[in-house]
Design brief:
This protein is mainly beta and about 425 residues long. The chain contains 6 helices and 33 strands. The longest helix has 18 residues.
């Protein structure tokens, strides 16, 4: 191994050490479940301070960590109907709820989940004086994603890909291969919502948008190596950061989002970079599957030391080369998934779906989970049988990825719903 390879390994080990001390999520969490009846928003207070803002009955809002038979806490909930304030209280004593809120009950998690629900009934809340201190509404108009170049490259280039027809009123929805060029150790910030020159933000949200690393420059004097394949006429093979930041509307001068921010990292098309992503500050996110606001499989507290997603490889080229084959024992030539430019610079690794599509292979439907394979039960093939789920590509990505989905029906392993106001950080750590 040469000096550069040794530096890469040392750097990657340092990154792994930073996050490897965090154990797998084993705690249980409690989530509010409030029926329609009270007027939203509802403001949650504890120990004299506001600790929550509930805007809809479908909201996945976490109360906090919960241990049956052990958790102790107290909350006061407030709402106004326009003419008077109403309030009720919740007391958790050794994990059991009591208080003045109607119909209090804690429901156990669904099978496989770690989320209990603190449910209220539909009864009337007593009238009361306004809460003190005065409640604060969440500012949803400054949602941001921060991209960091923590690689050895002199510069990395980030592209944005956005469905403009789904976002007709937000000028931040663009398709641009060189959205950001970030020098080593620097960062660039993307603002989700539109902004006027004087600094006023308009929380229009963004639907169906993503980012990829589209190029890198090894040294200041080196040419830029184009990667990703998402340019005009290109073949996609990039590690993709995908999000859905739903719009926010104003109701009675209060901003109300239409749902959580959906966040994931995908290697379905292929991969070209190492990446780590997490909420900027520790945030409760639910582990979910579409549609948003449903099917809660679990929850956790995520942040810089407990990332939502990561893909960490010391040598992506070698991983790609070892993934360029069909399941063991299958006849036929290996599929050459590796993509390099004319000078031999690594550009990326195509997924089996991308390769089969590019080469018009008859097995493209199976590896892309389309046509007769368009459901999880049809796409997931049994052991030893050719299929997207048991390809060496998917198997090899498993040990080096955390909550990154690798083929069409693998997305439930890394699909998160975070509070609508969440700011995210994306660290590129090497290629």
């Amino acid at each position: 191994m040469n000096a550069q390879g040794i530096r890469k390994v040392i750097h990657l080990l340092a990154v792994l050490a930073q996050i490897s001390a965090i154990p797998a999520i084993s705690e249980s969490y409690l989530m509010w479940q409030i029926p329609n009846g009270p007027t939203f928003p509802i403001y949650v207070y504890s120990n004299g301070a506001q600790v929550g803002f509930l805007y809809a009955s479908s909201q996945q809002a976490i109360v906090g960590q919960y241990t049956p038979g052990n958790t102790n806490a107290s909350y006061k909930l407030y709402y106004t109907d326009g003419s008077a304030w109403h309030s009720c209280s919740v007391l958790l004593a050794n994990g059991t709820p009591t208080g003045t809120c109607p119909g209090l009950v804690i429901n156990p998690p669904a099978a496989g989940s770690n989320v209990y629900t603190l449910a209220l009934g539909a009864g009337t809340w007593p009238s009361i004086s306004p809460p003190s201190p005065a409640p604060a509404n969440v500012n949803y108009g400054r949602r941001q994603i921060t991209f960091i170049n923590d690689t050895e490259n002199y510069m990395i280039q980030i592209g944005e890909w956005c469905t403009t027809t789904a976002n007709p009123h937000n000028p931040n929805c663009v398709n641009l291969e060189n959205k950001f060029q970030i020098k080593r150790g620097d960062k660039s910030v993307f603002t989700v919502d539109s902004q006027e020159a004087e600094g006023n933000y308009f929380p229009a949200g963004l639907i169906s948008y993503a980012f990829t690393l589209t190029g890198y420059q090894k040294f200041a004097t080196s040419p830029i190596v184009s990667t990703g394949g998402y340019g005009p006429g290109g073949q996609p093979y990039a590690t993709k950061i995908e999000a859905t930041s739903l719009p926010v509307t104003t109701v009675n001068r209060v901003e109300i989002p239409k749902g959580s921010t959906n966040w994931d990292i995908s290697a379905v098309d292929g991969f070209n970079t190492n990446v780590i992503s997490y909420p900027e500050t520790p945030t409760y996110c639910t582990y979910t599957v579409p549609p948003e606001e449903s099917n809660v499989l679990g929850a956790g507290l995520y942040g810089p030391k407990n990332p939502l997603n990561s893909l960490l490889m010391a040598f992506p080229q070698k991983l790609c080369a070892s993934s360029s084959q069909l399941p063991p024992g299958k006849p036929g030539s290996p599929w050459d998934l590796l993509v390099s430019d004319a000078a031999g610079n690594y550009q990326g690794c195509m997924s089996p779906c991308t390769f089969a599509t590019k080469t018009n292979n008859s097995q493209a439907q199976l590896f892309c989970c389309t046509g007769p394979y368009d459901s999880p039960t049809r796409c997931d093939q049994p052991s030893g049988k050719l299929g997207a789920n048991n390809s060496t590509y998917v198997q090899n990505l498993g040990p080096v990825s955390h909550n990154v989905y690798r083929f069409a029906f693998d997305d439930a392993i890394g699909d998160f719903a975070c509070p609508a106001e969440t700011n995210f950080v994306v660290r590129f750590v090497d290629i």
